[in-house]
Design goal:
alpha/beta, 7-stranded mixed sheet, 17% helix
Length: 127
């Protein structure tokens, strides 16, 4: 079974997200909204191949909990339900909120052995 198909996003905490977003805009040319931005990519210039999200969260966010790390990586997956079942069978603790549908697709979460929260994302069928 293919597990991860790519990086869906890089998320990290900052003391002043607006100021840090401005630094990235000014010095690296990364234009972003309050939620972040999406880098579009495709193997075929005629098709939309998807994107990688980049987002700066306030350092007070609870979104990364129970991890205390200042970052979280979102991995794109082909079949979230199948992967979550496989991870459970391997003894990993899968967040009970995992697998819920949203406009952005399905999400799941596990913790790695170093205490990093890992987000798994199955994009909606249209992507």
């Amino acid at each position: 079974m293919k597990r991860v198909t790519g990086i869906g996003g890089i998320f990290f905490k900052a003391k002043d997200p607006a100021q840090l977003r401005e630094w990235y805009r000014q010095h690296l040319g990364i234009e972003s909204e309050e939620w972040g931005c999406a880098f579009q990519w495709s193997d075929d210039p005629q098709k939309d191949g998807g994107c990688t999200a980049w987002n700066i969260f306030p350092d007070s966010t609870k979104y990364f909990d129970p991890s205390t790390q200042p970052f979280m990586i979102n991995f794109r997956v082909a079949n979230l339900e199948e992967l979550l079942n496989q991870l459970r069978s391997e003894g990993l603790q899968v967040d009970p909120k995992s697998g819920e549908d949203s406009d952005f697709g399905k999400f799941g979460w596990v913790m790695d052995p170093e205490g990093n929260r890992v987000e798994l994302w199955e994009p909606p069928a249209s992507e």
